[in-house]
Amino acid sequence: MIKTELCELLNIRYPIFQGGMAWIADASLAAAVSNAGGLGIIAAMNANADWLREEIHKVRTMTDKPFGVNIMLMSPFADEVSDLVVEEKVPVVVTGAGNPGKYMKKWVEAGIKVIPVVASTAMARLVERSGATAVVAEGGESGGHIGELTTMTLVPQVCDAVKIPVLAAGGIADGRGIAAALMLGACGVQCGTRFLVAKECTVHQNYKNKILKAKDIDTIATGKRLGHPVRCLKNQFTRELFKQEYNSNISDEELEKMGAGALRKAAKEGDEKNGSFMAGQCAAMVHKEQTAQEMIEEMFAQAEEILNQANRFCK
């Protein structure tokens, strides 16, 4: 069985996080992943503290295992949510879309294990100095908001840059990805796209179907002109948005408005034309709906088999 320092650090069986996907990562999915031995995560997204409090209370009725909350630092409710996780004694906070520096002191003093998602060695060093427990090095293969570097290049550089544990994210959907991440120096992984089709995931069935039908070239990154690219599955919405990025007659504000609410349309309404179906480049590697437990056990069994055979390359 694969065990790393992350397992001891967070009291989890498998060194795997479920990504904090907005409009998708709710109490149902988080509890299922935690019960399966990973770290389930609730996405605070752009919701207020009242909504998040309900999800935290709900997840505690569904699991007695550790769980986390993902806080998107660009959220207009980031300040109140940052206080709520302290009040609720949330064991782990994962942050994204910004620098968590202004909140780190109170979180660390409250005993919260803070694990920011980073896309560069500079940010990894910065959050380490602020007291981060670990970091998630997320490559541009991932779904949603992405950085420039690939997982293959980012993870080893972050591992060299910091002394705290590093998780790998971006393009990981099976045991091969887990084994590769460990060989790059990571002590765990974070997966999002694979968990989109978990039976406990409450996302619209149209979203799951699009993941299951995806081919290797079916994702596209939009928003580069705005400075915050997002990877999604190709559809009418993403193709039009990509096209308008090169239209000098369209302002940045108009581009931003084009994307407003598109993720909710995909996740909650299943709008295949106008929704933003965020997914990683590994979507084509996801072939069936399973329980979160089946997914995790299958991935780690495959990773263990691969790692046990690795000595055949050394003579």
Would you give an account of this structure?
With 315 residues, the chain is α/β, with parallel strands linked by helices. It folds into two domains: 5-202 and 289-310, TIM Barrel, CATH 3.20.20.70; 205-282, no CATH class. It contains 13 helices and eleven strands. An eight-stranded parallel β-sheet has the order 1-9-8-6-5-4-3-2. The longest helix is centred in the last third of the chain and has 17 residues, at 292-308.
**How many E-type strands?**
11
> What does the main sheet amount to?
8 strands, parallel
Number of discrete helical segments: 13
Q: Would you tell me which CATH topology of the largest domain applies?
A: TIM Barrel
**How far apart are the termini?**
25 Å
CATH class (first level) name of the largest domain: Alpha Beta
What is the total number of structural domains? 2
Silhouette: globular
CATH homolog superfamily of the largest domain = Aldolase class I
- Provide the CATH architecture of the largest domain: Alpha-Beta Barrel
**Average residue pLDDT:** 94
Oligomeric state of the chains present here: single chain
What's the arrangement of secondary structure elements?
Elements: H1 5-10, E1 16-18, H2 27-35, E2 40-43, H3 49-62, E3 67-72, H4 78-87, E4 92-96, H5 101-109, E5 113-118, H6 121-130, E6 135-138, E7 144-145, H7 151-161, E8 166-169, H8 175-183, E9 188-191, H9 205-213, E10 219-222, E11 230-233, H10 236-244, H11 252-259, H12 262-269, H13 292-308
Parallel strand pairs: 1-9, 2-3, 3-4, 4-5, 5-6, 6-8, 8-9
Antiparallel strand pairs: 7-11, 10-11
Helix pairs in contact: 2-3, 6-7, 8-13
